[in-house]
């Protein structure tokens, strides 16, 4: 067994006890990928400006086709701003998302500078979201992305132009106790697993 492989295996020993009962990687990867999961419970601890900007900075450096950087991060961090977001987030999601100190609406500019469609705008913004989620975990924060919101209402409330597509609202904050969640959500507040890698990998062609 190679030294590099042995080192990778040792890294796996750093997987959090919180997730090890639910998540077992098929191959050695950084514990960062295993330890990150989408929690709903948040404490009331504020996310300071420097920490928030560090999370968004990670999104800034995501891969981007032709370096167009189509992503846009619409941030709500004051009570007034979060109340605006509350106008378009689905009620079921608000039962927990209202406790997150920061909400981020992930959006992307669909067009290139010449007005033509950028076919990679959503793909690139997905990469930015992954970068944000992982950087947040490195800083001891939790994130959860939700698609349950009224896009037309969000566009109206936030005055989003037509060329910008809305993808997801991300809750960001420090992880809290699941007992603060509505009873129906408490049992679901745990890391989920993944299907085996072999079920996702297709060699050559279908």
UniProtKB/TrEMBL annotation:
InterPro entries: Nitroreductase (IPR029479), Nitroreductase-like (IPR000415). The keyword Oxidoreductase applies. Transmembrane segments: none annotated. The keyword Oxidoreductase applies. Keywords: Oxidoreductase. Residues 184-206 are annotated as: Disordered. It comes from the Bacteria. Gene3D superfamilies: NADH Oxidase. Coiled coil: none annotated. GO terms for molecular function: oxidoreductase activity. Pfam families: Nitroreductase (PF00881). Residues 35-89, 93-174 form the Nitroreductase domain. Belongs to the nitroreductase family. This is Nitroreductase. It comes from Paenibacillus thalictri. The lineage of its organism: Bacteria, Bacillati, Bacillota, Bacilli, Bacillales.
């Amino acid at each position: 067994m190679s030294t590099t492989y042995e080192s990778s295996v040792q890294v796996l020993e750093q997987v959090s006890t919180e997730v090890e009962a639910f998540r077992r990687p098929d191959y050695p990867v950084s514990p960062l990928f295993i330890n990150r999961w989408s929690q709903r419970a948040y404490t009331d601890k504020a996310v300071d400006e420097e920490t928030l900007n560090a999370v968004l900075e990670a999104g800034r450096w995501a891969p981007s086709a032709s370096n167009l950087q189509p992503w846009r991060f619409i941030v709500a961090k004051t009570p007034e701003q979060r109340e605006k977001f509350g106008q378009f987030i689905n009620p079921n999601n608000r039962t927990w998302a209202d406790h997150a100190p920061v909400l981020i609406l992930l959006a992307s500019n669909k067009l290139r500078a010449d007005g033509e469609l950028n076919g990679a705008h959503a793909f690139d913004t997905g990469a930015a979201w992954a970068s944000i989620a992982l950087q947040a975990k490195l800083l001891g924060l939790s994130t959860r992305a939700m698609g349950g919101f009224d896009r037309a209402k969000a566009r109206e409330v936030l005055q989003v132009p037509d060329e910008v597509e809305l993808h997801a609202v991300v809750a960001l904050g420090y992880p809290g106790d699941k007992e603060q969640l509505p009873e129906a959500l408490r049992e679901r507040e745990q890391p989920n697993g993944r299907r085996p890698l072999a079920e996702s990998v297709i060699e050559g062609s279908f």
